Amino acid sequence: MTNPVNPAIAATTPPPVMQARRWLDGVTFSTTKPLINVSQAAPVEAPPKALRQALAEVVLNTPEAHLYGPVLGLPQLRTEVARQWSAAYGGNITDTQVAITSGCNQAFAAAIATLAGAGDEVILPTPWYFNHKMWLDMQGITTRPLPCGTDMLPDPDHAASLITPRTRAIVLVTPNNPTGAEYPAELLRRFYDLAQSHGLALIVDETYRDFDARSDAPHDLFTDPHWSDTLIQLYSFSKAYRLTGHRVGTMVASTSRLAEVEKFLDTVAICPNQLGQHAALWGMQNLSQWLAGERDEILKRRAAIKADFPALAKNGWKLLGCGAYFAYMEHPFEMPSNELAKQLVRQSAVLALPGTMFVPAEDASGARQLRIAFANIDSTGIATLYQRLAGFTI
Ligand SMILES: Cc1ncc(COP(=O)(O)O)c(C=O)c1O
């Protein structure tokens, strides 16, 4: 007799990025045609040296950084987030409305844990960020997919038609993973009003906020004095300061919800990684100029993705969305994207994730789509990528 497996876990898809990595097994790449890996949206280099030095100082000279800390995070970091967020969004956010988490994925899990249980429903625009769907599946929560329009934006009226007595939350990701779409402030406001009028939570994952092409606040939701009755905002320190391995994220929500979140976090991780929190704090206090430079570079790459696209468009490709770290493309082949992605590794030395990973199995659109995470390739790399995609044949 074998040990039982929770059917909800068994039914959840395996981690997509790991799955894609296995497509590389046994494939060798020549030095003249090295692999272009556009599969993962993560920095590939270490944080800037000054941050590493500051971290080394903490390792040596701050004994408590090696111990358990407060469940909801380092007080100075919570205060810094509250201060910088209030300034950036033009609202009033206090430190008791900020929790630090072990990455933004954990922030999502914690938020959902306080909102919904098995049998409840959550509305998720598609294409979705797969870890959101996976967490909902593992909890036995029903995901109500909300297909985006051709502009890669979700429609609040359509969302309204999906609300049932079991709906607990609407989740938005902006700038979006996988499409790169930056949701207009007015659209966020319409979703906020919808959520508020139905007593739902609006979860907005702003992991890529530092790479938004707009220089103003991307929305005005925090200016509502009652924002914390409806809004739960999530963020990741992974991308901004290249801290993926340190696992630091944040959730901004009402103080009363964070008291519920504290139960979840205490049980799961006790406290967020202390060194990572010090790194995030140092980054927030010292790296704004550096981060502005990183953003400029990403915006340059985004411009190259768009400017060079005619090279692919003449072969039947379409650019469906482009922003933050991502371009979302429609390919011209009969072959479904999950097959195409494997063939691209072997024939073109390109690793990208297929659209099938971002939509429900019954949604045929994913078979025509690919996500290109372009953040790690410069304009020369983008030109080479396009040559390889244009030269691909079945
Ligand atoms: C939309 C979105 N949310 C959350 C995460 C995870 O962030 P973290 O590394 O902070 O867990 C990612 C990472 O790719 C993401 O794209």
Layout of helices and strands, plus pairs?
Blueprint: H1 7-10, H2 16-22, E1 36-37, H3 49-61, H4 75-89, E2 98-101, H5 104-115, E3 121-126, H6 130-138, E4 142-147, H7 156-162, E5 167-173, H8 185-197, E6 201-205, E7 231-236, E8 249-252, H9 255-268, H10 274-286, H11 288-307, H12 310-313, E9 318-323, E10 326-330, H13 337-348, E11 350-351, E12 353-354, E13 369-373, H14 379-391
Helix pairs in contact: 3-10, 4-10, 5-6, 5-9
Bound molecules: pyridoxal-5'-phosphate (PLP).
Polypeptide structure, described:
With 394 residues, the chain is of the alpha/beta class. The protein folds into two domains: 7-46 and 290-391, Alpha-Beta Complex (Aspartate Aminotransferase, domain 1), CATH 3.90.1150.10; 66-287, Type I PLP-dependent aspartate aminotransferase-like (Major domain) (Aspartate Aminotransferase, domain 2, 3-Layer(aba) Sandwich), CATH 3.40.640.10. It contains 14 helices and 13 strands. It has helices spanning 7-10, 16-22, 49-61, 75-89, 104-115, 130-138, 156-162, 185-197, 255-268, 274-286, 288-307, 310-313, 337-348, 379-391; strands spanning 36-37, 98-101, 121-126, 142-147, 167-173, 201-205, 231-236, 249-252, 318-323, 326-330, 350-351, 353-354, 369-373. The strands form three sheets. The protein has a seven-stranded mixed beta sheet with strand order 2-8-7-6-5-3-4, sandwiched between helices. Strands 9-10-13-12 form a four-stranded antiparallel beta sheet. A two-stranded parallel ribbon has the order 1-11. Strand 5 (167-173), helix 8 (185-197) and strand 6 form a beta-alpha-beta unit. The longest helix has 20 residues, at 288-307. The protein is globular and about 55 Å long. The model has no long low-confidence stretch (mean pLDDT 97). Pyridoxal-5'-phosphate binds next to helix 5.
